[in-house]
Design a protein that fits this description.
- The complex is a heterodimer.
- By secondary structure, chain A is mostly helical.
- Chain A has one domain (5-310).
- Chain A has helices at 5-23, 28-74, 87-111, 114-134, 137-142, 147-195, 208-231, 237-283, 288-310.
- The longest helix of chain A has 49 residues, at 147-195.
- In chain B, 90% of the residues lie in helices and 0% in strands.
- In chain B, helix 1 (5-25) packs antiparallel against helix 2.
- Chain B is rod-shaped, with a radius of gyration of 36 Å.
- Classes of the chains: A mainly alpha, B mainly alpha.
């Protein structure tokens, strides 16, 4: 029975689309959630690094100011200078955050459309080469084949290759994302515990970086007052006013710094939420309507791919 | 029963708060310096407690880092498999191009 080329092509498109739909594709919600998670990781990483830096830097300043204020009575001893955290304690935290960033960027690479686009480009090149081959007189002497057949072959390779890529992603990504949920949650919980909380009005309940930074600013206030008290007879009026003005500024900075650390804790909670949303998206069952839409969309993609080969005929 | 780390922290936290409150209302430099000296000492104790609290979690971070790296390796392996599919098409294109060149050559040689 004769079938028109158009009908033949239509059957091919739907056949390949059906093949593709038997596996389905990584849900669009996953594509949407991966960048959100990657952004949350970047934000949490930068904020957490800044939190540790801020506490360490303020601690350094407080030590220096203490040495200045007490110099006349205590002099100087190198043992008066130390770090708040040992470098290895900080290093292991930063390494974990870097590892999380690598995970997020690899996840974005694996789940993104870039690989599929690259695959389309490569199969398009294959289509052009096949067309060129079928156009050669020597080839035509050996095999009776047309440029249209070459296009159909390239389209089939494209659909099958995409099917393989999607199949691998759908088989493995949900499991890997699920495996990562607990480490992401534990990391956030540990960092939130490190950040801790500021003391209340009675000085209770404080611990971690927030307590440390709050106390460091309080120390800075005591030292600034002591510096003014001990030198007030030597200041000219403008210098004295400038030193006194630093006091309310320090009080404001203490609150602002604490709020920043509190926001970092919120960013860590968002990190867990973003990964949870990603996990839910990989597990989400698509309804019939969505699957049918995906089928139509894949058929349209295959048609566009086929058309792009024909334009080169 | 031994007090918890937070209970110990709270005792020194309250003491630090009391000393600083006393500092703001002290009227002589001598009193202020005495209170500041005591506050400095309590600040050092609170710093040591905060440092120990943060340090106590360091080992857990090392374990987590290994877990994250292991999962990322599996992801990277999946990425390599996808790359190999793309690479196969590139190889197929090269083969088709080589066949074309071979046919061109044969066509000229055997005419």
């Amino acid at each position: 029975m004769y079938r028109s080329p158009h009908h033949r092509y239509g059957t091919l498109t739907w056949g390949l689309a059906l093949l593709f739909a038997t596996v389905g594709c990584i849900s669009p919600a996953v594509h949407k959630n991966v960048p959100a998670f990657a952004n949350a990781v970047t934000l949490a990483t930068e904020n957490t690094k800044s939190a540790f830096d801020a506490v360490e830097q303020t601690y350094e300043n407080v030590q220096a100011e203490r040495i200045v204020v007490n110099y006349d009575t205590q002099g100087f001893n190198p043992k008066m200078v130390n770090r708040f955290l040992d470098p290895e304690d900080l290093e292991v935290r930063l390494t974990l955050l870097d590892a999380l960033q690598r995970y997020a960027s690899t996840l974005a690479d694996v789940s993104g459309d870039e690989k599929l686009d690259l695959f389309d480009d490569k199969t398009r090149a294959l289509g052009s080469s096949l067309q060129s081959l079928t156009g050669k007189a020597a080839f035509q002497k050996l095999v009776s084949s047309s440029a249209r057949d070459a296009n159909i072959a390239a389209t089939a390779v494209n659909a099958l290759g995409r099917w393989f890529i999607e199949r691998k992603r759908q088989q493995r990504l949900p499991q890997l994302i699920e495996e990562m949920q607990d480490p992401v949650k534990s990391t956030a919980e540990l960092l939130e515990a490190d950040i801790g909380s500021a003391p209340d009005e009675r000085g209770r309940g404080g611990h971690g970086l927030r307590d440390q930074l709050w106390n460091e600013y309080t120390q800075a206030l005591l030292q600034q007052v002591a510096f003014i008290d001990h030198n007030k007879d030597h200041f000219d009026p403008a210098s004295k006013a400038a030193e006194i003005r630093k006091l309310p500024a320090l009080v404001r900075q203490r609150s602002l710094a604490d709020q920043t650390l509190k926001q970092t804790q919120a960013a860590l909670t968002e990190l867990v939420d973003a990964h949870g949303a990603l996990l839910r998206a990989t597990k989400a069952k698509t309804d019939v309507h969505t699957e049918f839409s995906a089928l139509i969309s894949e058929a349209q993609r295959i048609k566009s791919f086929y058309d792009s080969l024909q334009k080169k005929d | 029963m031994n007090p918890s780390q937070q209970e110990v922290h709270d005792v020194f936290g309250e003491l630090y708060q009391s000393l600083t409150e006393a500092y703001w209302v002290a009227s002589t430099i001598v009193d202020k310096d005495r209170l500041r000296g005591a506050a400095d000492a309590v600040f050092d104790i609170l710093t040591a407690l905060n440092r120990a609290d943060i340090k106590s979690r360091t080992e857990e971070y090392a374990i987590l880092k290994d877990q994250v790296n292991s999962i990322t390796k599996k992801l990277a392996a999946l990425q390599s498999e996808i790359d190999s599919i793309i690479h196969n098409v590139t190889v197929a294109t090269s083969v088709v191009q080589a066949i074309g060149k071979g046919l061109d050559f044969a066509d000229k040689f055997f005419v």
